[in-house]
Design a protein that fits this description.
6 strands, mainly beta, about 110 residues, 6-stranded antiparallel sheet, 2 helices
C-alpha cells in the first residue's frame, strides 16, 4: 500500500526579511504612519549578482527601501513581479526616524516537486 500526502490548501509559509537601503529622503514623510501590521507593496526591480530577485518596498507610494529574497524561499517568489507584505517589526527610538524595518512575507502557493 502506497501512502501519499498533499499539502493543505490553506498551508502558508511566512518569512521575515529586513529592508535594506532605507530611503531616508522618502521615509521622513511617512515614518510616523508606519506601524506593525501595516501593509506594504513590493515590486520587482531586478536581480543581484547571484540572481536573487530584488524588490522595492513602498508604503502609500513612498519608497522605503529594498529587499532581496534568497535561499530556500527564493523559488517561492520566482516569476512574481508584485505582491504585498506586512510590517513585522520597526527599529526606532521615540521622536526619531526609523532605523530598521522587518517585513513578514507570506507564500500561500507551493510548487510540487517530484
Amino acid at each position: 500500500m502506497k501512502s501519499t500526502f498533499e499539502i493543505a490548501p490553506n498551508f502558508t509559509i511566512k518569512t521575515i526579511v529586513s529592508v535594506k537601503e532605507l530611503m531616508s529622503h522618502d521615509l521622513i514623510y511617512i515614518y510616523h504612519h508606519l506601524q506593525i501590521g501595516a501593509i506594504v507593496q513590493l515590486e520587482l526591480v531586478g536581480e543581484n549578482i547571484k540572481g536573487d530577485p530584488s524588490y522595492s518596498v513602498r508604503f502609500k507610494g513612498f519608497l522605503l527601501g529594498f529587499i532581496t529574497i534568497s535561499g530556500a524561499v527564493r523559488s517561492l517568489y520566482e516569476g512574481i513581479n508584485a505582491f504585498e507584505g506586512e510590517v513585522a517589526d520597526l527599529n526606532k527610538q521615540k521622536f526619531l526616524p526609523i532605523k530598521g524595518i522587518d517585513l513578514c512575507l507570506q507564500a500561500t502557493k507551493m510548487r510540487m516537486v517530484s
